[in-house]
Amino acid sequence: MIRNTLLAIKILRREKPDLIISTGAGISVPFFYVGKLLGSKLVFIEVYDRIDSPTLSGRLVHPLVDAFILQWEEQKKFYPKGQVLGRLL
Fold first, then answer.
1. d(CA 16, CA 74)
2. Angle between helix 2-15 and 28-37 (nearest 10)
3. pLDDT score recorded for residue 16
4. Mean pLDDT by 10 residues, the chain (89 residues)
5. pLDDT of the residue at 25
6. Which CATH architecture does the domain made up of 2-84 adopt?
7. pLDDT on residue 82
8. Is residue 5 helix, strand or coil?
9. 67, 7, 66, 63: which is closest to 34 by C-alpha?
10. pLDDT score, position 88
């Protein structure tokens, strides 16, 4: 996590993205937190195959994202501020 946070600081300070979009994985968490500190907008897309339980990445970034996209209505119980868009290809 420390290594990924340092990597996020280096990359995001250099690239200065307006928007960061991710579907998860551990590396997304430090990028989202550093991106938020640097003023980037954040969009998280919860993975398609997690219907009955939330992902760890989703739980960690849910409080700070600007948009949280869900692919299943059932995921709404884990992420109240999520927006259900349905299946994304």
1. 35
2. 50
3. 97
4. 94 98 89 98 94 94 96 94 89
5. 83
6. 3-Layer(aba) Sandwich (3.40)
7. 96
8. helix
9. 7
10. 85
Which DSSP letter does residue 20 get?
A: E
Token pair of 82, please? 């999520």
Rounded to an integer, what distance in angstroms lies between the CA atom of residue 18 and that of residue 15?
9
Helices (H), 16-74: 28-37, 56-61
Q: Are 68 and 82 in contact (CB under 8 A)?
A: yes
pTM score of the predicted model: 0.90
Domain layout of the chain by residue ranges = 2-84
- Cα(34)–Cα(57) distance, integer angstroms: 15
Supply the DSSP symbol for 84: E
Tokens of 27: 């590396």
